[in-house]
Amino acid sequence: MHNIPDLSENFVYFNDDTFLINDISPSFYFNKMGNPKDACIFNLIVDDGELSFYILNNLKIIEKHFNKWHELKTKPFNYFNIKYKSSQIKNFLLLFWKNFTGFQNFHLPQAFNKKTFIELWIAEKEILINTCNNKFRNRYDVNQYLFRYWQLLKGNFEISNISSTGLCISPTPNNFTKIKKIFNSKKIKVVCINDNESISNFNTSKEFINSLLRKKTSKQMHI
């Protein structure tokens, strides 16, 4: 990704199921120094199909380059901070595990510095080349979360309460009312409409989301 011509040093990675639903500025994703805004919250790896293998492979790489206790001692306020609010409870509960047990992934657009990609490609070129050469994902691959974990543990971020301004939700009919409220909210800036296997009536969900997007863009055009 860092080899994309004219890619800015500060950029935001979007999945194809994420949407900006209110106005934002560059300061939403980066501070004045250009550091990405993020949250370093510990988590446990759970069975989530193929994704679990990629996350575990990511952690194997992280364990090669970072020592959990060293990071906690040298950067304690990256893990325990009032800005995390109740989310930091996970960091307290998972504190005494010797190794990193995982990190909370928000499934929202992710702010990156290009230098993070350059550093990781120098450090772990072989696994990254192998992953890129696979036409289809396999259980030995890593994914984009590896770059985020690296960035977090390098301390190259400004603490932000990610979950307060963005949400991830599945577009099933029983969530339609909640999704509509999200799109009408002024507080929520970004939403992920998580198109997973649980969607049984795809066409109904698709038309519902498209109707919300049409209304949203129509309002913006008249501002």
Provide the descriptors you would attach to this structure in a database record.
two-stranded antiparallel ribbon; 10% strand; Gt1; 7 strands; single chain; alpha/beta; 2 domains; three-stranded mixed β-sheet
Task: Briefly say what this structure is.
38% of the residues lie in helices and 10% in strands.
Explain the overall architecture.
The chain is of the alpha/beta class and 223 residues long. The chain has two domains: 26-161, no CATH class; 165-221. The protein is built from eight helices and seven strands; from the N terminus they run E-E-E-H-H-H-E-H-H-H-E-E-H-E-H. The protein has helices at 50-65, 68-74, 89-93, 114-123, 125-133, 145-153, 176-184, 202-221; strands at 10-13, 18-20, 37-38, 110-113, 158-159, 166-169, 190-193. The strands form three sheets. A three-stranded mixed β-sheet has the order 2-7-6, with helices on one face. Helix 1 (50-65) packs parallel to helix 6 (145-153). The radius of gyration is 19 Å and the shape is globular. The two termini are 35 Å apart. The model has no long low-confidence stretch (mean pLDDT 92).
